[in-house]
UniProtKB/TrEMBL annotation:
Transmembrane segments: none annotated. One of its GO terms (molecular function) is DNA binding. It comes from Brevibacillus brevis (strain 47 / JCM 6285 / NBRC 100599). InterPro entries: ArsR-like_HTH (IPR011991), HTH_MarR-typ (IPR000835), WH-like_DNA-bd_sf (IPR036388), WH_DNA-bd_sf (IPR036390). This is Putative transcriptional regulator. PROSITE patterns: HTH_MARR_2 (PS50995). SMART domains: HTH_MARR (SM00347). The keyword Nuclease does not apply. Keywords: DNA-binding, Transcription, Transcription regulation. The keyword Transmembrane does not apply. The lineage of its organism: Bacteria, Bacillati, Bacillota, Bacilli, Bacillales. Residues 1-132 form the HTH marR-type domain. CDD domains: HTH_ARSR.
Length: 137
């Protein structure tokens, strides 16, 4: 019997650990990189939007954002509602982003070595279906 969920979980852990090894010398970890990547493409989001998009509990996202803010990689600002906090990349993070992105791409290329485009297309379709199946109704 195959345990697909276990295999996915193990692969994600291995990938995260490997990405951490690549990113840590540059001052980032994979969980932080996910936030930075998201903010790069979406420019500014509320903490709640980030938490929902990344499927991370609010206290965890708050701790990670606090650390990123201390490191100077993000800026948090109040929204229209005083309870709402917007998050965006700092100028320093925007400047470092290409370096981080290149390191992440190298890691991804290493992980996908020997996987052709047809396999990747199937992989992406399967992951999308799995994500759709697991989303709350």
């Amino acid at each position: 019997m195959q345990y697909y969920g276990h295999r996915i979980s193990q692969t994600a852990r291995i990938f995260s650990k490997s990405l951490n090894g690549t990113m840590a010398p540059m001052g980032l970890y994979s969980s932080q990189w996910g936030i930075i990547l998201c903010l790069h493409y979406r420019e500014s989001l509320t903490q709640v939007q980030l938490s929902n998009y990344l499927n991370v509990e609010a206290p965890t996202i708050t701790r990670t954002l606090t650390r990123l803010e201390e490191m100077g990689w993000i800026i948090r600002s109040e929204g229209d509602d005083k309870r709402e906090r917007y998050v965006s990349l700092s100028p320093q993070a925007i400047e470092r982003f290409p370096e981080w992105l290149e390191a992440a791409k190298v890691q991804e290329e290493l992980a996908l070595r020997g996987v052709d485009e047809a396999e990747l297309a199937i992989f992406n379709r399967v992951l999308k279906k799995m994500n759709d199946n697991l989303q709350p109704l």
